[in-house]
Amino acid sequence: MEPSNYENIPDKARYINFKCLEPGTTSPNGKQALNRWSSTITKGHDFPGAQAMLYAAGVPDRDTMKTAPHVGHYGRRRKTVTCAQHHDANISIPGCDKNMPGVIMAAARHNRPFIMIYGGTIKKGFSKLLDKEVNISACYEAAGAFAYNKLFATEKATKEGATPSDVMDDLERHSCPGAGACGGMYTANTMSTAIEAMGLSLPGSSSNPAESPAKMRECTKAAEAIKICMEKNIRPRDLMTRESFENALILTMALGGSTNGVLHFLAMAVTAEVELTLDDVQRVSNKIPFIADLAPSGKYFMEDLYNIGGTPSVLKLLVAAGLLNGSIPTVTGKTLAENLESFPSLPGDQKIIRPLSDPIKKTGHLQILRGNLSPGGAVAKITGKEGLVFTGKARVFDKEHQLDAALNKGEIPHGENLVLIVRYEGPKGGPGMPEQLKASAAIMGAGLKNVALVTDGRYSGASHGFIVGHVVPEAAVGGPIALVKDGDIVTISAETNTLNMDVSDEEIAQRRKAWKAPKSAVNRGVLAKYARLVSDASHGAVTDLF
């Protein structure tokens, strides 16, 4: 369905000057939106963007299924084309989780006038059999509920004959009602909001839905905006400063963003040659309250936030409170605070963003944990709803698919506290640091509140619960996570920011002597090269760290 104001475009301009290559995104929903917005920017000669060269640089599933190489590959292709073709400027339209940091890393490398336009968030769905609004995360978690016989329709629908299989079918049909990136505060919206807070996109870009007149207007403004960047010689690295990265962290903490944000910010900072470490993440988390009741841990979606003022209204709140730096420059040629002057404050009766005086959690939900299980750091996503400390017996899985199989068979019991360890899924071990979405979603859907999950891999932005990822050193290089055994007592603490196994140093040393590195699943090609070059997650899992 075309945006409602499409009919207002003059007939003579209803053509595309340049052939549109298929944008590289693994999401068909995102692809639909990106084609539309890229064609809007490159309309006919009556529009400022007429002379733009449209080039899509993505990597489809058939090329690589691992997401961390995807980020670097996307950035390298963007940078290579921009420089090789001597483009004067670049407008990038990413649509999902990994290609957003990819285009930002490319911008830092080519350092030519640049604006990012977020493809936009998807609308909410509605499940008739559950009688509630749903999003993609509902499907993920329903799989776990189904495996543990906990997926039921409403009482009325059940009486009318609806089965658990019917509920699954209903969710799959209605959770994604149109174009756009996943609609909660998952990784796509984490990155889009953070990038707006950095001043690298137009005001409101991160919350304008994919299917909205607002997104159409944003695209028509983009060409004039990039002209301003060119005239004023505003370069990406002028905007990618330590202060703007701190803004990104602050907004991510306030909104309850994804653990992936930490990984991506570190990688972006390396590329921009800005000093940023896990200690900076923890410092910001210590001072910024978590105030957004957004999925996956909350009730609302990005579409709801858009309806009460969107990202600019939240930024305005944080700038007014002195928590966010409003003086940073942006792609408009104005400061962030100046951009926000024309936007409304949050309505007094809204329930999505809590008052700063009454937050969901007084500090950030992302915590950096260190201990004898993660001496190089790990990232925990703990909103406070699941508690702050968890102790349980380890149950170890050497790959995610092993845990997935156990969950599908209902083999992870309720009752005794368990810390499930998924290892050999880090940057080198994956290789590519795949996200543990199936497992984390199944645990939540099954109602396994007695279970925590620890991995050297990543999580989806849709993951929530007592989860710890990005464990460094990873198992593939002999990190302590490779030495954990079934039955070891593991404690996760967001109070002391520690991740420890109750095993003596002497015992750890003995286990290390007996440990042998498993044979890599790949020894040639892109993934093998990636595994040899990639840094650990605490340094952004980048391949150009020297």
Automatic annotation (TrEMBL):
GO terms for biological process: branched-chain amino acid biosynthetic process. Pathway: Amino-acid biosynthesis; L-valine biosynthesis; L-valine from pyruvate: step 3/4; Amino-acid biosynthesis; L-isoleucine biosynthesis; L-isoleucine from 2-oxobutanoate: step 3/4. PROSITE patterns: ILVD_EDD_1, ILVD_EDD_2. It catalyses: (2R,3R)-2,3-dihydroxy-3-methylpentanoate = (S)-3-methyl-2-oxopentanoate + H2O; (2R)-2,3-dihydroxy-3-methylbutanoate = 3-methyl-2-oxobutanoate + H2O. Its cofactor is [2Fe-2S] cluster. Residues 80-339 form the Dihydroxy-acid/6-phosphogluconate dehydratase N-terminal domain. The keyword Iron applies. GO terms for cellular component: mitochondrion. GO terms for molecular function: dihydroxy-acid dehydratase activity; iron-sulfur cluster binding; metal ion binding. Its EC number is 4.2.1.9. Keywords: Iron, Iron-sulfur, Lyase, Metal-binding. Residues 351-541 form the Dihydroxy-acid/6-phosphogluconate dehydratase C-terminal domain. Belongs to the IlvD/Edd family. This is dihydroxy-acid dehydratase. It comes from Cudoniella acicularis. The lineage of its organism: Eukaryota, Fungi, Dikarya, Ascomycota, Pezizomycotina.
